[in-house]
Amino acid sequence: MEHREEELIQQHAVHDERLKELYTEHLELKQQLEAFRHKVYLTPAEELEKKRIQKLKLASKDRMMELLNRHQHDEAP
Asked: Per-residue pLDDT tens for 65-75?
């Protein structure tokens, strides 16, 4: 996620509880993926879990971007 997108999300999350929840979820998933990246070897079960988390992280980002686009559209004159 780009720095500018994160700034906008944080700005709008103050007033949008759903966006705040999605952002928190996204950060938690990112942390979980980092834990997998630090491992030298992943078991097949860990590999599956990593892929599941990646999909969830991507889905949460898509939902955040959707909400962010709505906020930006609502602010347009």
From this structure: 999 998 888 77
Per the confidence metrics, is the pTM higher than 0.85?
Answer: no
To the nearest 10°, report the CA torsion of 73, 2, 10, 18: 70
Distance, CA of 7 to CA of 13 (rounded, Å): 10
- Dist CA 49 CA 29 (whole Å): 11
Whole-angstrom distance, CA of residue 37 vs CA of residue 11: 30
Specify the residue for token string 């906008």.
Answer: 8
Where are the chain's structural domains? 3-75
Q: Using the 8-state DSSP alphabet, how is residue 14 labeled? A: T
**Angle of helix 3-13 relative to helix 17-37, nearest 10 degrees?**
140
Alpha-carbon Rg for the chain, nearest whole angstrom, is 15
